[in-house]
Amino acid sequence: MNISVAIVGRPNVGKSTLFNRLAGRRLALVDDQPGVTRDRREADASLGDLRFRIIDTAGLDDVDQESLEGRMRAQTEQAIRAADVCLFVMDARSGVTPLDNYFAEIVRKTGTPTILLANKCEGGAGKSGLYDAFSLGLGDPIPLSAEHGEGTSDLHAALKVIIPNEHDEGRDRGKRRRSHNEDGEDGSVSLDGQPVRVAIIGRPNAGKSSLVNTLIGEDRLLTGPEAGITRDSIAIDWQWNNRRIKLFDTAGLRKKARVVEKLERLSVNDALRAVRFAELVILVIDATQPFEKQDLQIADLVSQEGRALVIAVNKWDLVEDRGQAMKDLKEQCSRLLPQMAGVSLVPISALSGFGLDNLMTAAFKTYTIWNHRVSTAALNDWLHEATQRHNPPASKGRRLRLRYMTQAKTRPPTFVVFCSRASELPDAYVRYLINSLRDSFDLPGVPIRLFVRKGKNPYVDK
Question: Rounded to two decimals, what is the model's pTM?
């Protein structure tokens, strides 16, 4: 039994702070200004012996339904209807406001069990607001400080009436773990048995959230003509062809010089964190403005992090001469991204769904290459041929000798070659070896690491 608990309330009452407290990690962005949270965010949470799924939502506001805030409110109302329990948070220091009364009525009409929390009660500062909270008609309010953790024992007692504790859930969780283990052969190629982590990144308004919504088949994320709607990196569990995937929608990455506000810096850091923890990255670019400088910088960042990369060319339905456009794109990609030579370029339309199967097929082909291991015997045969074809240059009048090679690890493919005088091998020759490796062992579209090490002299002690 997987209980979901939604945190709701008007803007800036401390919902995301409580979400982070229950999740045990700083997942949601927190700032003093209201309206930071836009998309609803989910995470596994615990409180004492209780385990549940926590949902952070956008602040409820009385606005036009067609506006961005109205679409945020619709997402929140959807989370309320889907939740097993609601935590209605109000600001005890501000007291009960007309918005609190208005949205308390909405929550009551849904019939979802609701626990009323009077937040910001540390030090007795919100005592008067705590007494006002009784007027909301949602039961006895629980005094709480999400920032300092005060009142969580009372919250635990209230949740315990609804949520089974860990001991009661032990047998069910064991069954779920066994079923996940049995699903290990379901086509998911994640080496640790976990879902494959896929980050969707790109410039603002490139169509990242629309792509995720079309992939999962529901309006899970806020979209619209406004640039920079997404702020948090939102993780969504999904399956494609029996492969378990965790999709990460991220905030648009602008040029660093333009990121001046604190909140946008937090959003960018959250997006970069998603890239670092991802295994596969889908870079969404605009087909009408392809390969701008920021696109190239994002692709280079993915290469430096060593992640598998696929480029989704979105808004393909707006392109007229598609054959010539794809030819030009491939030429630009080869010229501008030599460090990711052979990366897959997949034309798509996030709104219509065109090309999404091709995108996921290319993504998992690249992911398989990213996990590929080459045998040591094959590597040393190749090394012999590569050095015969193009001899290492001489240094200080003496020829450099490449003696032996092995693959140290995968994810990304990482190789070590042992050289007589490693520090003197030119970078140009290392690039030659990497390009030859890529061509000989069919490793397109993934970063390749090649380290040169000095071999140990067996006669040094003699």
Answer: 0.81
